[in-house]
Structure formats: C-alpha cells, structure tokens
Design a protein that fits this description.
Blueprint: H1 7-15, E1 18-21, E2 26-29, H2 30-37, H3 66-78, H4 95-101, E3 143-146, E4 154-157, E5 163-164, H5 166-176
Antiparallel strand pairs: 1-2, 3-4, 4-5
Length: 183
C-alpha cells in the first residue's frame, strides 16, 4: 500500500509531532528517529543526520488497473529517454506469420474452441497415496501418510510420532525373531 500524502495527512503529521522520513519512507516521531539512529546494529538509519532536514515526499496520485499501463506508455511517447526514439523498431509481420503465432485469431466466433496439445514433458504420473486403516498401535492416535525417499507407504501418528509401513513391520518382525525369518 502506498502512502499518499495530502493536505489532511500533513495536518495529521503536524498534530502527532511526526515528520516524514525519506530514508525510512515513513512518518516518524523524533524519539523514534533517535532510537533508530542509535540502534546497536548498523541499519538503514546508520549515518543519517536526523529528521530536521527531511522534506515531504512528492504528492502521488492513485492509478489503478490498466490506467497505470496507459499512463506509462503515454509518458514514454511524451517524454522519451534520449536515444530511445523507437526509430530502430521495424515490424514486418504478414498475416500468415501472425496466424502461425496466434492461431486463435483464425477461428470464427461460432467455431468450437481449439484443443491445445498438453505439455507432456512437464507432466509426471503421480504416485498413488496409501490409506491407513485403523489407528496407531501405541496410542490410538490418527495416522497420516508420509513419503520417505525409499518408501511411499509410510504412516506416522500425529499424536506420538510412531512410524509404520509394510517395510517397517517386516524389519520389526526380523528383529523380534532374532534376525532371521523363515517363511
């Protein structure tokens, strides 16, 4: 949000004993200015002379939407940058090139919409998410699926953090049997 100073906001600044600080782009009291200047860390106000020689910012007008673009373009034509006279720009586009660039311009108003090709190089198949049936074996809390780098079917309890998956259960069974499982 841009702060636009008008005559009423200048009155507010004077009433509340604040002055516009160009460096901070904010209205500050002299106490707040001194606190910022004397802060132990070198910040934006380090080396500043204070608010005594600051001037009010130029008044701005509110521009919304496409009016801002129109204003910018108009300013470029009315007051161009030296050496930017647009004389070096040449556009030689025939109808065929234009239709090749923008095929939607070729269709009639009553025609069916165009079916654009999908960009398959950016689309990867999503791995299915597993669903855990039941609750945590430790605390009966809710389980949430978590993807680990080596296993997509891992669940952890939101209450106690217990992790389980078919691989976790197999490893637990191996450790409980003394390191060997005979199937």
């Amino acid at each position: 949000m841009n702060l636009v100073l008008t005559q009423s906001s200048e009155v507010w600044l004077a009433t509340n004993e604040t002055i516009w600080c160009n460096r901070m782009a904010a209205a500050l009291s002299t106490v707040a200015c001194e606190q910022n200047r004397n802060h132990p860390f070198k910040g934006r106000c380090f080396g500043c002379g204070g608010l005594h020689d600051q001037s009010t910012p130029p008044k701005q007008k509110e521009i919304e939407g496409l009016d801002a673009l129109d204003t910018i373009i108009d300013d470029l034509y009315e007051d161009p940058v030296p050496g930017d006279d647009f004389a070096d720009i040449e556009l030689d586009v025939d109808d065929e090139m234009l239709l090749a660039l923008f095929p939607e311009l070729a269709r009639d108003g009553d025609a069916a919409p165009l079916n654009y090709q999908r960009f398959t190089e950016y689309q990867e198949a999503v791995k299915p998410r597993a669903v855990y049936r039941g609750r945590c074996k430790r605390c009966l809390g809710y389980m949430e699926d978590v993807r680990e780098w080596h296993d997509d079917y891992v669940f952890h309890c939101l209450e106690c953090g217990w992790r389980t998956s078919p691989e976790y259960e197999r490893n637990r069974a191996i450790q409980a049997a003394g390191g060997v499982i005979c199937e």
